[in-house]
């Protein structure tokens, strides 16, 4: 499962890079057209905004997989192995609940907006809200994989605190 998730995250990284490159081209091209030719690309702002939302959520999945989110461990670090494990399992349970809530809310929004057209592109607004579905499923898979490792004892004691301090980011 780890190999599959690593491959999936590599694919997400490529998609993130493509989103960023497209955003840069659209915005830069629109700026040049506005200043040089007094015209512009109507859908540029809307598509850039959608790509930014997708880029952010997909980046969140990659960061979750790499345990790259910052956190604090002041309380948990003072606990024993069983306490650390209990806190981590509880944290995973809460994160999985949040993934389910985000998924179900995004599913409702996607259904509601299926027939609603975006103002400038005319595309279905469901595409905008579908990122919540992708994030909910992807983050859920990452969290379930990590939770499985904790419950089966495949995590060492120093890995029971899965946060990074700001000093660790250097």
Description of the structure:
By secondary structure, the chain is an all-alpha fold. The chain has one domain. Helix content is about 70%, strand content about 0%. It contains 4 helices and no strands. It starts with a helix and ends in a 19-residue tail after the last helix. The model has no long low-confidence stretch (mean pLDDT about 90). InterPro entries: DctQ, TRAP_DctQ. It holds the Pfam family DctQ. Part of the tripartite ATP-independent periplasmic (TRAP) transport system. The complex comprises the extracytoplasmic solute receptor protein and the two transmembrane proteins.
Q: Which properties best describe this structure?
A:
170 residues, 4 helices, 0% strand, transmembrane transporter activity, membrane, cell membrane, DctQ, TRAP_DctQ
In short:
The protein is mainly α and 170 residues long. Helices cover 68% and strands 0% of the residues.
Number of helices: 4
Number of strands: 0
Radius of gyration: 20 Å
Categorize the overall geometry: elongated
Overall average pLDDT: 91
Please state roughly what percent of the residues sit in beta strands, choosing from under 5%, 5-15%, 15-25%, 25-35%, 35-45% or over 45%: under 5%
C-alpha termini separation: 29 Å
Share of residues in helices: 55-70%
GO biological process, one term: C4-dicarboxylate transport
Protein name: TRAP transporter small permease protein
InterPro entries: DctQ, TRAP_DctQ
Transmembrane segments: 12-35, 47-65, 86-106, 126-144
């Amino acid at each position: 499962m780890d190999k599959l998730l690593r491959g999936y995250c590599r694919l997400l990284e490529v998609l993130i890079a493509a989103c960023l490159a497209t955003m840069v081209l659209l915005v830069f091209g629109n700026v040049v057209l506005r200043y040089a030719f007094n015209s512009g690309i109507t859908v540029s702002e809307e598509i850039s905004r959608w790509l930014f939302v997708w880029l952010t959520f997909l980046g969140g999945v990659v960061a979750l997989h790499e345990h790259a989110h910052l956190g604090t461990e002041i309380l948990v670090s003072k606990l024993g192995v069983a306490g650390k494990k209990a806190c981590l399992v509880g944290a995973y349970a809460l994160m999985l609940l949040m993934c389910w809530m985000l998924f179900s809310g995004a599913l409702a929004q996607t259904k509601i907006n299926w027939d609603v057209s975006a103002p400038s592109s005319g595309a279905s607004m469901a595409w905008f809200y579908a990122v919540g579905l992708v994030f909910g499923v992807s983050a859920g898979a990452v969290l379930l994989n990590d939770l499985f490792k904790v419950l089966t004892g495949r995590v060492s004691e120093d890995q029971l605190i899965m946060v990074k301090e700001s000093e660790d980011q250097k």
